[in-house]
Design goal:
0% strand; mainly alpha
Length: 210
């Protein structure tokens, strides 16, 4: 079975990298892992939704080529990227590659506060820590996509197709990440999932991992 982008990313964000993120958030490794496991599918699913249209796929492809492919081509790995994200501080304005807040704005648009609140409530880490986590993870997801684009010689069409498959997989697998994605992105539609459902699901999810 082919590993999905979500599975590959979750597989890499283990061990020392997980410990660094937990340290930055002020949580233990288990809490950080639960939150990352919910956040990565939500981010990737949102990118898949954005890339459904040719224009959305072209915009994302352009952003990857402009801001993320050069670093990937230079051999920057996830560990190096995470070190830069956590160690950058407020010394200078972040580059577009590292500016998690700006990247999240492009990914979620007006749904960004819902994404932060939903993740914080469903995983129990609170919206401040979830906002911080999403700002760390967004550049990592983009860097990972840039590597995929480079390695596969992709264009905007093949990128959109790949992300569309990822989104469908997140929805099929369900879990907290899929439920969060639907609640955050589809709340303006009819079949919305309320945060009450998320809280119930989050309690089950966290209870099952004790």
């Amino acid at each position: 079975m082919n590993n999905s982008i979500v599975d590959e990313l979750l597989g890499q964000l283990q061990g020392p990298l997980l410990g660094q993120i937990a340290g930055q958030l002020g949580t233990d490794n288990s809490q950080a892992q639960n939150a990352i496991t919910a956040a990565i599918p939500m981010i990737v699913g949102a990118l898949g939704r954005n890339a459904q249209s040719p224009k959305g796929a072209e915009d994302l492809f352009g952003a990857l080529q402009r801001d993320h492919v050069p670093a990937a081509a230079g051999g920057l790995d996830l560990g190096g990227l995470l070190g830069s994200l956590l160690g950058g501080g407020a010394m200078a304005a972040p580059s577009r590659q590292m500016d998690g807040g700006s990247i999240l704005g492009h990914i979620f648009g007006g749904a960004q506060p819902r994404a932060e609140a939903g993740l914080g409530q469903a995983t129990g880490i609170g919206s401040d820590k979830s906002a911080q986590l999403l700002k760390i993870l967004a550049p990592i997801v983009m860097a990972f996509l840039a590597k995929k684009v480079m390695a596969g010689g992709m264009n905007s069409g093949s990128l959109g197709g790949m992300l569309g498959q990822e989104r469908a997989q997140v929805q099929q697998q369900g879990g907290l990440g899929g439920t969060l994605m639907n609640a955050v992105l589809d709340q303006d539609g009819d079949g919305q999932v309320g945060l009450g459902d998320l809280l119930k699901m989050g309690a089950t999810f966290l209870g099952g991992r004790r």
